[in-house]
Amino acid sequence: MLVHAIRGVQPNFEAAQVNILATSDNHGNVHSLPLLSQTIENNKKDIFIKAEDPSTLNIFAISGDWFINPSKRGYLTKPNMTNGDIQLQFLTKFIGYVHNQAGRNSNFDTVFTMGNHDLDAGDRFMYKVMNKAKMKTLITNVDVENSPGIQKMMAANENIVKSVVYEVQDDKDPNLQHKVLFLGVTIPSMKFYNPGLLKKMSFFDDCNKKDANLTPADLQGTFAAVRKEVEAFKEKYPKGAVVLLSHTGAPISKMIRDEVPQINVVLNGHDHKNLTSLKGKTNINSLGKDNEIVKSLNLHFDDNGDLETTDMNTFFSKTTVKDKLATNVLQKALEESFAKDVEPLVSLTSIAGKPVTLDYGESIRFQNSYLANWLTSAVKRSVRTITGDPNVIVGIQSSIIRGGLKDGSNNLDIMKIFDGVSEDLSNIQVGKIRGDELVGLIVENIKGNLKAPKRNTIIQWSDIQVNRTMISKILEGKLDKPFEEAIKIRNEETNEFEPIVLHNQYKIAIGEKFLVKDDIEWPKKIRGRFVSMHRTYDQLLRSYIASDDINFQLKVTQKTQEQRIL
Q1: CA 64 to CA 245: how far, in whole Å?
Q2: Distance between CA atoms of 487 and 506, rounded to whole angstroms?
Q3: In 505-538, which positions are buried (b, 16+ CB within 10 angstroms) versus exposed (e)?
């Protein structure tokens, strides 16, 4: 347990406090950092209260997923740099910016815990981040004894810790220091999120389960790791405050709270929500996503050393006046780093010649989506051109789609589209399965999606119409029909959807990450019949939109606007 002391000077008779600025699930959206940073600057007096007082500690907390898909390339301005290179560069700039807002002479530090997407390129990339970024990386639920890479790094780098204790000098009593413990927990399902990519790092309770399916029985190692740090802290400092950075989603954060009720504040990531939950003395704050919000918390200690109050504010970046960005330091850095990437590149119109947008939203994970329709059709064209097979059907797990398109979209927008899956697991696999097997695969997917629509995402198909509502009714016993009646396949000659033929062979193309899954049945049954195209979704999409006959002049057709999920 690292102890970090904040210097004390002459008392000034003002409250001892900790200011925490918290964010999570930025997902590599460096292009929106200027707006977020300006939001912080506009509200810094409410965020960093009495920031430069010696009895104030200022903390910038990142509850995971600052990074996403770090190994992807494709920048036009800096073609040799990866997503991770750029995102790390801007993390350093952003930490410096936040420190400036708190006052360079203030007591300031940055704490970070890993999210699942931070590990999209495996543990090697995260080791690079831990060594280069000026922050403390909290690894409370990493199984250090079985993580040789972490052991080596912890021995050489004091900023990689299970937990850290900060001491804040009381404003009146020179002999009183207020203590605050910070811990960090990562969703432990690495075998599910990034199978095979962690070589020298292991988490307690690592399993091949979606977080929506995790129960307290699955998380005993995680609970024990948190409890050990908190109880050791409380034994030494009974009045100290405890702050947990939890990249697990609110349901698991609540499980941790129930198991370790001494925690005062949970800064929760992973669920992409803006919610607050209070039970007992534990306040759980979910931190949203994609730089849309930032939260500030102010912990106040009384003269007896007890945590007196915890105040919380939410600031929305969309309310920031954009014309203030002209002089923003991060905006200038963005323009310099991405000069070619921020230039308008795409022309997007409808078949009627009218401007349209293909908007991204979380509803893509469980509903019909024009964006998903367009993307599956675009990737399909590249797949069919490369394979020479005019009948390949493309499936895309909707969770890997993270951005949309509009008229004037730039290269950064294009790079964002397929950012929800590691490039290491994004290669397209092509194989044949029978109609009855395809029905089984689709029904299994819909069944999981119905349990947790935003977490257990639906597969969007280029030429298959899935009646999700009918499958739901059949599963509930409200409709006595076979599942195959809920699934139709496009007739390439008539362009109409027709009933699936159970004994027919269908060739499908789908991502490697789906086929390596072991937590569901169908991937295991069919994966042996698939071969890799050695091309990713991103590469196939770029191949389509940059082809000679398209040349970034994109159109939304009637096929894009059809109902493929009912």
Answers
A1: 8
A2: 13
A3: ebbbbbbbbbbbbebbebbeebbeebeebebbbb
- Asked whether residue 133 carries a pLDDT value surpassing 70, the answer given is yes
Q: Give the separation between CA 432 and CA 387, rounded to whole angstroms.
A: 13
Do 138 and 184 touch, CB atoms closer than 8 A?
A: yes
CA-atom Rg of the chain in angstroms: 25
Residue 182: strand, helix, or coil: strand
Among the residue ranges 4-13, 63-72, 87-96, 277-286, the one predicted with the least confidence is 4-13
Q: What is the pLDDT of residues 515-563, one digit of tens each?
A: 988 888 999 999 999 999 999 999 999 999 999 889 999 988 888 999 9
C-alpha 344: how far from its chain's center?
Answer: 26
Q: Do 513 and 397 touch, CB atoms closer than 8 A?
A: yes
Q: In 3-state terms, what secondary structure has residue 294?
A: strand
Long-range residue pairs from 321-325, CB within 8 A, at least 24 positions apart, any chain: 322/35, 324/38, 324/42, 325/34, 325/35, 325/38
CB count within 10 Å of CB 454 equals 15
CB-based contacts of 502: which residues, under 8 Å, 6+ apart?
434, 435, 436, 439, 484
Which of 478, 479, 485 is closest to 499 using CA atoms? 485
**Distances in Å between the alpha carbon of 262 and those of 179, 228, 266, 558?**
14, 12, 11, 57
Residues 82/73, Cβ–Cβ less than 8 Å: yes
- Produce one character per residue of 223-259: b if its CB has 16 or more CB atoms within 10 Å, e if not: bebbeebbeebbeebeebbbbbbbbbbbbbbbbbbeb
- Residue-wise pLDDT for 218-261, tens only, equals 999 999 999 999 999 999 999 999 999 999 999 999 999 999 99
Tokens of 279: 């039970």
The H or E element spanning position 471 is: helix 468-475
Q: What is the pLDDT of residues 32-83, one digit of tens each?
A: 999 999 999 999 999 999 999 999 999 999 999 999 989 888 899 999 999 9
Domains of the chain: 2-333 (3.60.21.10), 343-556 (3.90.780.10)
- C-alpha 353, offset from chain centre: 36
